[in-house]
Amino acid sequence: MKKRILLSLLVFLVILIGCALLYITYLSPGITGYAAKNVASGIFVAGRTQKSIEKEDINFFPVNHTKNIVDTTKKIVISRLLHFWKSEAVYNEGLGCTLVRGFSEADVLKLDYPDVPLPSGNPDTIPWPAGDLLSDTVPAGINMQKLNGLLDLVFKDTVSFKGTFAVTVVYKDQIVAERFRSDLNPDIRFLSWSMAKSFTNAMVGAMVKDGLIDINEPMKIDKWAKDERKNITLDNLMHMTSGLEFSEAYYKMRLSSTTAMLLKNGDMGNYAESKKLLTRPDSVWSYSSGSGNIIMDYLRTAFKSHEEYLAYPRKAIFNKTGMRSVVWEVDASGTFVGSSYLYATMRDYARFGLLYLHNGNWLGEQIFPEGWVNYTTTPAKGSGGKYGALFWLNKNGEFPGLPDDLYFCDGYDGQRLFILPSKEMVIVRTGCSPRGTIDWQSFLKGITETVE
Prior knowledge:
With about 450 residues, the chain is an alpha+beta fold. The chain is about 35% helix and about 15% strand. It folds into two domains: about 1-110, no CATH class; about 145-450, 3-Layer(aba) Sandwich (Beta-lactamase), CATH 3.40.710.10. The chain contains 13 helices and 15 strands. The strands form four sheets. The protein has a six-stranded antiparallel beta sheet, sandwiched between helices. α1 (about 1-45) packs across α2 (about 50-55), α1 (about 1-45) packs across α7 and α5 (about 195-210) crosses α10.
């Protein structure tokens, strides 16, 4: 009898261990992939230290149990879990860091950013916003003492504003405040997370102006040709009304569509395009990071070569607006990650906000078509006024007492870029702040109340 019980316990233990190993194997691409990608980009793109990234950005279970090996010569990061599971991220100049998924390391290292020279001249000698030479005069109508007092509070790292990296405030086209945590500086590039979707809006807008695409035509995607997905348009994807299945969630102990796309798939657009249609296009609003990557995959087909595609954002947007720091990362297929992976300095995020504040006009040059910003800020059908075209809106009253013309870019862990036309303000905030640790209402209200 005892032998039978012991045997049963042994079998149960073996099954339990087997199930645990299978579960870890299932999770491991997400665990090690998240670590490798964030450590690599944090070091080689952002300009931060490995210690900093491990202490904050990946310091949560189970990702914090990875061992991250950084090769600073080859610019490769390998992250391991229990020595059995690993992921690798590699750096390419101009394209940032990419997880090796679905393609070989050699294939990913072959990705080549075209030679697109930055704008001429030393930005330190060129007046803001084209350059970084700031005016000594503060615009009339803002209480600087009150603004600085609020920023002092924000950077105390208390619960209401915990994890703040940097804040930049622009008023009447001038930077009136820029503050960085003591271990960070103006040269650091900060990760956008989902603020990248709004940059995808900018690329689409520039391409519409250049006559390269029509957002209202059905998209010609081969795998959609024989079913109702053939009716999906770029406009549907930008408004998050494509009708495609997609689980937008960020679980720590299981993979969703978002994490599977970002951490397990080398061709993210292809992964998102493979999802089935749940509802008729333009009938239901449902936020989806997959939409951003389908858009980017589709935009690539509008160019004669891959080099033209990669060069386009810099030529059409970033160089024209003095955004010298931007690195838009690609997946292993060489396609921009339109949903999540863009790095820029605080001033370049502020320039991006100014471009929209001025309706797509930059110092006299129209970057987007006339009316593009109005299109962008028109509520998507079914969103209840909270979403436009790859931008979030305040038309649903999410921020009581603040202007309803407020719209913003919103990224994971507390990255936000607010545009307030009626206040003539752009506000950028970056950090590593899990949901619920930032009181956005008091943050925004405090800053806007400094303006008369």
